[in-house]
Amino acid sequence: MWKPCGKTYSSEWNLERHKRESCPGKGFRPKGTPNIDKNANDANTEDTVIIVGSVKFAVSRQALSRSSAYFASLFQLHEPMQGDVHVDVDPNEFQMLLDAHNNPTSITVSNIDAVALLADKLKFTTVYDHCEKYISEKLPQFSVMHAIRLAEQLKLSAIKQRLFDSISIDVFRSLSADQDYRLMGADLKAELLEKWGTFL
C-alpha cells in the first residue's frame, strides 16, 4: 500500500506510475518520504522543512506561498539560513488540509470542520472556497444543523441565511437529539428558536 493516499497496486510499475502522475499526496509530503517525481518543475521542488507540531513536512516554499497567503508572509520573514519553520497547529489536521489542497474531493463530513477552520487560519484561499461550497451544497444533505453551526463559526452569513430558509418543521422537531445543535452557542440557538416561532 502507498501510504500518502492509501491506494494498493498489483505491481511496482503501476505503483510508481501512480506516484509520478496522479497521487493526491504528491507535492506536499511528510519529511522522509522520497521525492519520486523526477520531472517536477523547479518551482515545486521541496526546498524547505516546516515543523508542524512535532512532525516535519518537506515542502516547496514557492508552491506553498502560492497556495497560502499565511505562508507567503511567513517565508518573506524567514530566510532559509534561519533553520526550520515552526507552525503551531495539529499535524494531522495540517495533513488533511494538504490532502484537500491536492484533491478537493477528500473533503468529507468527518473532516470539514478541521479543514475549513485551518484553511481560514492559514489563508489557503482555494481550499477555503472548496470548503465554503461543501458547507453550502453537500453538508446539509448530512446535517443542516452541522452546516449552520459551521457557517456561523466561519461568518458565512449568506450561506447561513440560505440554510435557515431551508429548514423544515421536521428538522425543528428533532433538535433535542441533534448533536450539532447542542454544540451551538446561545446566540445561534436563539436565532433558531426565533425561526421556530414562524412555524407556530
Automatic annotation (TrEMBL):
Region feature (Disordered): 20-41
Domain of life: Eukaryota
Residue ranges of every copy of the BTB domain listed in the record: 46-99
Pfam hit, one: BTB
Cross-referenced InterPro entries: BTB/POZ_dom, SKP1/BTB/POZ_sf
Protein name, entry field: C2H2-type domain-containing protein
